[in-house]
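Question: Hello, beginner here. Any chance you could explain the protein record under this note? Any guidance would be welcome.
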Amino acid sequence: PHQIISYALYAFEVNIRASTVLGYVGAGGIGIVLNSSLSLLRYDRVSVIILTILVVVIVIDWISEKIRKELV
């Protein structure tokens, strides 16, 4: 059971990262906002978007690590 939960958390982390890339190429989500901000040369918005993505990924990774440690 622990391995299944660990794998599910890992898959969730990968999906968060992949959703940004997919959105950037046109599938929707925050990637479209990033792409449009880049095309409008709004580097202030681009910085905020990239920092937001970074913080979200770090928080999800941290929460996932805490859950995995509790399972062991």
Observations:
- The CA atoms of residues 8 and 40 lie 37 Å apart.
